[in-house]
Every structure is written in structure tokens, then in C-alpha cells.
Amino acid sequence: MPTLYIIGNGFDLAHKLPTSYKPNLTKILKSMDEDLFSKITNIFFNNKIELWSDFENYIGNVESDYDLIDEISTEAENKIPSVDPLDGVDPINRPPELTASDNAVEFSDEKFNESDMQELVQNYYQKILQFIDKGLEKMINNADSRLISTRPKSIYHFTRQDYFVSFNYTHTLEKVYYLSSKNILHLHGEIPNIVYGNKQPKLTTDSDLELDDLPIDFTSDNYQAQGIPIDILNEFDPSFNNNDLSLALNDQINNEVQNDFKKKLMTHKLTKFLNGKQIDKILVIGHSLGDVDMPYFRVINKQFPDLQWIVGYYEKKEKSKFERQLNFISASKLDFVNYGKK
Question: Could you tell me if 176 and 196 are in contact, meaning their C-beta atoms sit under 8 angstroms apart?
């Protein structure tokens, strides 16, 4: 009977393909825009480039929110209009048809508000998302091109009756082993529709926005020196509320990380692919068994509760981790094979 193979990135790496988040993706992103790459490393990876190797566990988490807030605060300050709501108005001797309230309404249309903050954060995150997407596409295309130019040698012995659940974006199975695409599920898609992300991205701490460049400062003696009564000034509300903007900032960041960086599970695709399949055993090759992908393994185990699992690992320390991750599978149905370091 056929075997079900679960293929992870270690499979591609064993075929000498450049598909590591670090160094391959980081090198590409840095060459595209070194400044933006540094900002992303600061914000999501606690300014530690080595954490890119655990990309999906960190992407979306705002580890260094102060750097993020400083970046967004600067952009927000640049958008604050330098408008004086009293400009051209004599508050004491103004004509009846030109009231302070009328002028304040006109000013309010131009001031920076919560919706402006939401749009700013959305644009900021979309820029990051598009940057990473483009880098991933370059990495995948580089790897697929190598499949043609260098023709890696086959390492494993598959049959044409076997089935494959691949977590990779590349086409190693098709190009090296000449397997039918009908027997392969690219669970996380193919260019341009690729799936990646964090299990539960989050903002580590609440952010306290501090904007220094207020459009008008009624606390100064500037207007009082002109003899403008305080009660006249109180008719205006030209300033914005830092607390409201901070709340809008936090809410929008959380919205963005959930919408853009939370991994969208493709369990429905997996269930459809497995439905009706008759298989003999399950082999896992080159998969790191990270938390974010565990729901897929549970679906497979539920579909085939009586089958034997054979899980490959590369380093000795991985075995104990894999045993913990797969604790929902009976120990009697789990075997481990060392493919690499002893």
C-alpha cells in the first residue's frame, strides 16, 4: 500500500536548496532594502538576526515596541498640520458671522485623528508585509531555478503510488523525483499564493504614544499675551488626545498582526486531500514540528488513527522535542529515525 510522506524544509535543505530563513531569506531582504530589513529585525526579532531562523515563531510579534512607536510617532508628527485655528481671526473684535467655533470646525477637518493613525499603521504594516512577500518569492524562485540548473540527485526512494503533504513552496518532488502533482499537496501554497505566519502574533506591551509636535499650544503665553480671554480659547479644541491616539495605535497594530501575520490554517485543504486515501504508514521527513503546524498533524492522526508513524530527525536533541510535540500519538505507534548528526 502507498505511504504518506510529510515533507518539511529539511527535505529541500538535504537537496542543497537555498531555502533557509537564515541565511537565505535574510540575505535577500537585506539586499533589497537594508534599512527596512534592520527595522523589521528590530521590531519583530528583538534586534537579533539569528532569530530569523525561527521565522514563523517571531514574525508579527512586536518584540521591540518602543522602536515601532518611535517610527510611527515620527511619521505621525510629519502629518500633523501646522495650522493655527486663530490665524487671521481677531477673537475679541471678530464679526458675528465668524465665530471661534466655525474656525475650530474648519481646523478640526485638518488635524490628525484616530482614523489617520489607523491608516498610518495599516500602511506601515502593509509595506512590511509586501517586502517580506517579495523576499520569499525571490528565495523560492532561486531554489526552483537551482532544481533545473544543478539537477540535485535523488536521495529517497519514492513510488508513484505514494502521497505527499509538502510544507514547502518549491517543486523538488516534481522536478527531482518526477512525481505527479496529483499525489502532492502543497499545503502552504505556491507562488504567488503562499501561506506563512505566527501561531498567535501579538503586541508584547501596550504602547504609549508620545507626539511632541502639537499643532497649537494653548498652555503658552502666546495667546494670553495678545489679551485673548481664556474663555475664548476654551471655545476651541484644536489639540488631539494622545491617549485616544495611543489606543488607536494599539488596536490597529493588533488588528494588523492578526490579519497579516497570523498563520491561516489550511486544514480544509488537508482534509480534502486525505479523504478516501488508503495508505500503509506515515513518514515525516525534514519537518521541524513547530507549534504553528501541529493542528495539521492532529488532522492526519485523526484521519489515520491506527497507522504507524516514522519521524526523521537530524540532531539528537530534536528527538525529545518531537516526542513532546507528538504526544497525542500513542508511543507504540511512533518510531524515530536519525537522518543526520548522532
Answer: no
Cα separation, 63 vs 72, in Å, equals 15
Contacts 24+ apart (CB under 8 A), 51-56: 52/21, 52/22, 52/25, 52/26, 53/20, 53/21, 53/22, 54/21, 55/21, 55/22, 55/25, 55/196, 56/196, 56/197, 56/198, 56/199, 56/263, 56/290, 56/292
Q: Nearest 5°: CA angle at 87, between 81 and 93?
A: 150
> How many other CB atoms are found less than 10 A from the CB of residue 200?
14
Q: Is the pTM of this model over 0.85?
A: no
pLDDT in tens, 131-169: 999 999 999 999 999 999 988 899 999 999 999 999 999
